[in-house]
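Diacylglycerol kinase family enzyme
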Amino acid sequence: MTVPAASVSGRQRAAAAVALLTAVLTVVLAVVVAITDFPEGLGVLGCVAIALGAAWFGVVRGGRQRGVGIAVAVLALMVGAALLIRNGSWLPLMLLVLGIAIWHAAARAAFQAHVHLPAADRPRRPVLFVNPWSGGGKAAKVGLADEAAARGIRTVELHRGDDLEQLVRDAVAEGADGLAAAGGDGTQAIVATAAAEHGLPYACIPAGTRNHFALDLGVDRDDVVGALDAFVDGGEHIVDLGEVNGRVFVNNVSMGLYAEAVQSEGYRDAKIRTLLDTAPTVLGPAGSELDLRWSSPDGVAHTSAATILVSNNPYRLGRAVGSGTRPRIDTGQLGVAVVPARGEDGTAGHGPSSLLRQWSTQAFQIDSAQPVPLGIDGEAVVLDPPIRFRIRPGALHVRIAPQHPGASPSAMQPDRVVDGFRALAAIAAGRVPTPDVLHRQDHRANEQL
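Predicted structure tokens:
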């Protein structure tokens, strides 16, 4: 099976070239200032170096860390500006600030992947299933049903007490040749399961609250209406599905502390990385008594865990950019991430990030002496052991609107700051950065086992 991978567009090549050229010119200008405005120029050179490093940190990091990087860059530039203003050097000051700003913007643009997916035939009788309560009524706010009708897509809206699985089966029996879902990831999983079983194209409409599946598929979560174009002139991407005890999941299944978090009010604002990182430090003494028996890739049997997360393809975890996302959903592998129970190996609770065990596999099993609470794509469920996981490679034919990225935000972003310039050089040359540059973190996670 051939699957599309992230490609380098002309826009990305240009952005990467501009980023590299601007970085070089900015450093050269700073060196010239250091020489001509000595000794204050040396301070300016140091400030520019700090600003470049901090701005780059803001490029290859996400969330709060990106904000910190940008703030440090601005602070360093302010100090450098104060030194130049003392000498009345306004032109070099403006050029340095402009250079760093252009470099930062160009580097970010270079890492925004866009996949050109193979063209696919337009379905003649597609059906869209809408969960009107998802995302605070997002579907109604954007007039999704009317927009779908304008594109020849029939809409089925859920009502209280409706059985979504039965509604989907009825639609297929009536001749639906394409299935789309507008709602949370639980809704997406049900519709995607039916599409996979019947070999029908599927479209993910990001009308839920978090839309994790849409994010990793490369659907623009801010363009709910535009996502409907997947069934107009969209391209096709064949992706995997996960399965636990015969039930399909599109994102992940959690056990232990993370499964408990799924049922809490604060879960909607929580992130996978945050929960995994903090598990050992917030887990109480009873955490070591969780009966979750599993084996690591080296064959060692374990009798407990603070948190186990099994995902449809591996997540990028830790503190790298794109953390909590999956670079790809077509590798034919489950991702397994485990935070050991307190006291296991004698180290739990001392530096949570270093305790995260992560590996890839096609199948995984967990045993227990009692029913196991799980969070399946954010839904609280209890299953009888053994809990068996497997990957369904190439199970789902996803259609994605041509104007949407078609790739995860972490598909082309390097794990480490120091690899960023190598990645930029590859993009400027028209090449996708090699896996050893993009996914060093994944290798380290595998090696620690």
